[in-house]
Amino acid sequence: MRLLPIAVLCLGLTACAGPEKPPADDDSLYQALGGQAGIALIVEGLLINISDNPRIVHHFEDTDIDRLHDMLIEQFCFEAGGPCEYTGDSMIDSHAGMQINEAEFNALVEDLVDAMQAQGVPVTAQNRLLARLAPMRGDIIYR
């Protein structure tokens, strides 16, 4: 049995999707993720995992992967308290019409966790990033 960080369980529950959180007020999470270089490696691993995941890859067939790569780096950097500003579309706008269900959302979270584990990100830092991203769940599924 594979153990996933506790925050993955939270991401699957509607009760965890609360109001939008303000940006992180320090960069300790950004540093724990390996800074800009570490986040870039996590995102690259995530995109590779998605491309190998038959449960969700179809959602990315018409996606500009280079832009997605850049926006994910910005978003993770921003959420982790790094020196980035997220300039991408809102989660509601970017997921409109996709009809992502809970299982598909959870599959992407698993791919992200696997990417972070492959980079040696401590579970506490994984949970902190997932907790920062969790409020977006409601803006992504069933849109």
Structure, described:
This protein is 56% helix and 0% strand. Residues 1-21 have low confidence and may be disordered. The protein contains 8 helices and no strands. The chain has a single domain, classed as Orthogonal Bundle (Globin-like), CATH 1.10.490.10. It has 143 residues and is mostly helical.
The average pLDDT is 86
Number of helices: 8
**In CATH, what is the homologous superfamily?**
Globins
User: Can you tell me the CATH class?
Assistant: Mainly Alpha
CATH architecture: Orthogonal Bundle
Q: How is this structure best summarized?
A:
The protein has 143 residues and is mostly helical. It contains eight helices and no strands.
List keywords for this structure.
single chain, 143 residues, mainly alpha, Globin-like, disordered N terminus
Topology:
Blueprint: H1 6-11, H2 28-32, H3 35-51, H4 65-79, H5 91-95, H6 102-118, H7 123-133, H8 137-140
Helix pairs in contact: 3-4, 3-6
